[in-house]
Design brief:
Elements: E1 11-13, E2 18-21, E3 27-29, H1 35-44, H2 46-52, E4 63-66, E5 68-71, E6 87-90, H3 101-106, E7 112-115, E8 120-121, H4 126-142, H5 153-162, H6 171-194, E9 200-208, E10 214-224, E11 227-237, H7 244-258, E12 264-269, H8 273-282, E13 287-289, H9 291-302, H10 306-323, H11 326-338, H12 354-366, H13 368-376, H14 387-410, H15 421-433, H16 440-457, H17 464-471, H18 484-516, H19 519-527, H20 533-543, H21 548-561, H22 572-579, H23 584-593, H24 601-610, H25 623-633
Parallel strand pairs: 9-12, 12-13
Antiparallel strand pairs: 1-2, 2-3, 4-7, 5-6, 7-8, 9-10, 10-11
Helix pairs in contact: 1-2, 2-5, 4-25, 6-25, 7-8, 9-14, 9-16, 10-12, 11-13, 12-14, 14-15, 14-16, 15-16, 17-18, 18-21
């Protein structure tokens, strides 16, 4: 007996010439064969059709279904800078929309699904499978999706709707095959770039996941083809105690793995004693304290005052009243509507972040009037700040505004380099001094900030590595410094380094010339009368003035005499790329010092995002997979 076609699971005969689809209730003509109604199932209900995987019966005629290619958005990264275009395929238009056969056939069809009399021939090219697999890995890593997504029923149905011929890889295949391959390709590309880079600076930070595992993240920053580049190198588990020795060993192993031990200029991290010890003592490298951490300490220390704490507590109670009471919140909204004011809500501060306190005060000051009106009808209102306290709040906001601006700049996505630190600090100090404060509390806060800044930031201008970075930036040169003495010191340090470079170059040139001079020519010189002796003596006298030191001084003078570059322009693309031939040695120093980040924010940003990977839905991730996903995510 001939097997019954599965289409009758979804269709019901009305009479001898009509059938009804049990899914969408549409009537179709029936001529005794099932090819027509099966086409309806494939085009309009592809999920149900793909789920069946039935074997067609003899009564089913030749059927052709065409794949439709759709270009995928291009992606780029710092490793290969190659834009890849992937194509997804689909069997039909959106569910419920009747796409005509002519429309489907007129589209591009690289591969066909063909069903014949008694057997099925289902095909999809290996290239297409690889393209879709690659797009899947990109989605999982770019959006930090759990790898278990491919096991979810909803995702599987969605995948079948897009391409019934494609079977998503299992979580196991992704974990042990596709993800490692993608990671290997990306790391190989980055290693190839780094092999052609002379100088690299790093940022690093230690963080703890939800599963209490400790990790250390390292990011690399360098100039490639006159473009400032950055990327994650690794996120590795850090077992055991976080001593300077253990941290140093972990970093040393990572540097060896990437073959960058002899290219590192400096490492930027927070002010923790253990990580600083690892960098300076165990690795014998330059440590640059994170400017963002230092600024946070400065402002936090300055806000430690009993008078300020009383005001902050009163403001927090006020915010809590409207945060925890829907009636109070609705009342505030109603008052703002009546007063035709923007519908702004209160902002809660976070004790560990001073700028959240600034945001809280700023918002309260903005909605002070509607707050007062809304509290008037409250049965148990919190204590409202007095007129004098509002004056103090206004001055606190003015004083902290410049600190908040600097925090925003140094924590931006397009991170600032070390060369910007000195002018930023000087600008902050100048702004603070020119703020007019009337209240005693406001004046005390301003003076405390200035004093703490001088103490914590004072060493930046006299730090060789920071001073050289500012000096080598054509936007700042010697103008960045607070006094002439510090500017001259920076020039001296750069001059000394140039002197060594010119001396090395001179020795190399001399050795090459000596090795190339023919011995026969020397013998001829000895035989002939030395009629050139007088001239050669004059030349030697002139050459004594062209010492490495004098060449360095001349180069620096020429550099300083050139016009200052606009502050908003790129120092590499707009200056050094154009002058690297005439200032070859200075260009080399620019590559060395202008790629150093001002903060460890790049590393911190990594683990802030990585928190999504270590929550309850993703706690099965091994440290190795975590490292691979974070690395690939940084490529987008």
């Amino acid at each position: 007996m001939r097997p019954k076609s599965i289409v009758w699971k979804y269709f019901k005969k009305v009479d001898g010439k009509t059938v009804t689809c049990q899914i969408c209730k549409k009537d179709l003509k029936y001529f005794g064969g099932t090819s027509n109604i099966k086409q309806h199932l494939i085009r309009i209900h592809p999920i149900q059709f793909a789920a069946e995987n039935d074997t067609p019966t003899e009564e089913e005629s030749y059927l052709e279904v065409t794949e439709v290619s759709t270009p995928q958005p291009q992606t780029s990264n710092i490793t290969n800078k190659i834009q890849e275009t992937q194509e997804f395929t689909s069997l039909s238009g959106p569910s419920g929309v009747n796409t005509s056969t002519s429309e489907v056939i007129s589209r591009k069809r690289p591969k066909q699904l063909k069903l014949y009399g008694g057997e099925s021939n289902v095909e999809i090219s290996e290239t297409k499978i690889q393209q879709i697999d690659n797009a899947l890995i990109n989605m999982l890593t770019k959006d930090y999706q759990p790898l278990s997504l491919v096991e979810n029923q909803g995702f599987l149905e969605y995948s079948r709707a897009l391409q019934p011929l494609y079977k998503p890889p299992s979580r196991k295949k992704i974990t042990y095959d596709l993800l490692p391959k993608k990671y290997a390709e990306a790391t190989s590309a980055l290693k190839n770039i780094l092999s052609n880079v002379k100088y690299i600076s790093l940022t690093t930070d230690i963080w703890t996941s939800d599963s209490t595992r400790a990790y250390i993240t390292v990011t690399a920053h360098f100039v490639s083809e006159d473009v400032l580049c950055s990327g994650v190198l690794a996120t590795r588990e850090l077992p055991g105690s976080h001593t300077g020795e253990n941290i140093g060993t972990a970093l040393k192993n990572l540097f060896s793995e990437w073959d960058i031990e002899n290219k590192i200029v400096a490492i930027v991290s927070d002010n923790g004693a253990n990580i600083k010890n690892a960098i300076t003592e165990h690795l014998q490298l330059h440590h640059v304290p994170c400017v963002a951490h230092t600024l946070n300490l400065i402002v936090s220390d300055s806000l430690k005052s009993e008078t300020l704490e009383i005001i902050f507590k009163k403001c927090r109670n006020l915010v809590g009243h409207f945060k925890h009471s829907s009636l109070a919140s609705d009342k505030l909204k109603s008052v703002q509507e009546q007063m035709r004011l923007p519908l702004l809500k209160v902002k809660q501060d976070v004790p560990t972040r001073w700028n959240s306190c600034f945001i809280m005060l700023k918002r309260l000051n903005e909605i002070k009037e509607p707050l007062c009106v809304a509290l008037a009808s409250s049965t148990k209102p919190p204590q409202f700040p007095t007129v004098e306290e509002w004056d103090i709040i206004n001055e606190i906001i003015k004083v902290l505004k410049s600190a908040d601006d600097m925090t925003t700049i140094i924590s931006s996505q397009s991170y600032p380099t070390l060369s910007m630190v000195i002018p930023l600090v000087r600008g902050f100090q100048y702004t603070l001094r020119n703020i007019n404060t009337v209240t005693e509390v406001g004046t005390a806060l301003k003076l405390k900030l200035l004093e703490t800044m001088n103490r914590r930031f004072g060493g930046f201008e006299t730090s060789k590595i920071v001073a050289k970075a500012s000096f080598m930036d054509p936007r700042f040169k010697k103008l960045a410094f607070g006094n002439e003495e510090n500017a001259n010191s920076a020039e001296k340090w750069v001059s000394e380094e140039l002197k060594l470079m010119f001396a090395l170059k001179k020795n190399q040139t001399f050795n090459i010339q000596s090795s190339q001079q023919p011995q026969a020519e020397e013998q001829e010189e000895n035989i002939l009368p030395n009629i050139w002796a007088h001239f050669d003596k004059k030349i030697s006298a002139v050459k004594t003035y062209s010492t490495p030191a004098s060449m360095g001084m001349i180069t620096i003078r020429q550099y300083l005499e050139m016009e200052i570059l606009d502050r908003k322009k790129d120092p590499f693309l707009e200056f050094w790329a154009k002058h690297k031939l005439s200032f070859a040695e200075l260009y080399d120093l620019a590559l060395k010092y202008l790629s150093i980040p001002a903060t460890s924010v790049p590393s911190e940003r990594v683990f802030s995002k990585a928190g999504q990977l270590t929550n309850s839905r993703r706690n099965r991730l091994s440290p190795k997979n975590l490292d691979q996903i974070i690395f690939l995510n940084s490529q987008f």
